[in-house]
Amino acid sequence: MKREDWDRRYAGADSVWSLTPNRFLVAEAQNLPAGRALDLACGEGRNAIWLAERGWTVQAVDFSGVAIEKARTRAANGGVEVDFRVGDLVELEPEPRAYDLVLVLYLHIDPDERRVVLARAADAVAPGGTFLFVGHDLLNRTEGVGGPSDERLLCTPDEIASELPGLVIVKAERVLREVEDEDRPAIDALVRATRA
Q1: Which of 46, 51, 66, 96 has the smallest number of Cβ neighbours within 10 A?
Q2: Is the pLDDT of residue 8 over 70?
């Protein structure tokens, strides 16, 4: 989808996504010591806000200006500070080795562009820092529910793990996510990595 499509989607509803943080982020990050975090493709800011509430200093980027405005309002209403920015992730070059946690959750872009984004995201992870990717797995198209129908926007854990130069893979697996009012779960790819 183009930026204008996402802007329309975000403008068309009070909340496109849940207001609670992603369950996989909570499971993987709740015991990490707070530091600097970078949330790429942050949408309406639910994950960035959750991290900020736990003491993280968060920079969050999305290319939808409508989503970023909603995120800023939610953060202000919640009394937390997050550096929300509008930006195209394909063009973004985060500060190298600067973040203790880098998130890329449900980024829907062409694989060639995804490789560029992930390489730069991996480079932004500080020594001892954590990288977390969650996205719709390739199997989700036929065996899961929801997510993009364009197979090119889906991935496998092994594909993502191979696109993270310089990081040590801690976990690369398929995970199931229950979806309300559906008779089967969504299938996601989860990759956690660190910089030694």
Answers
A1: 96
A2: no
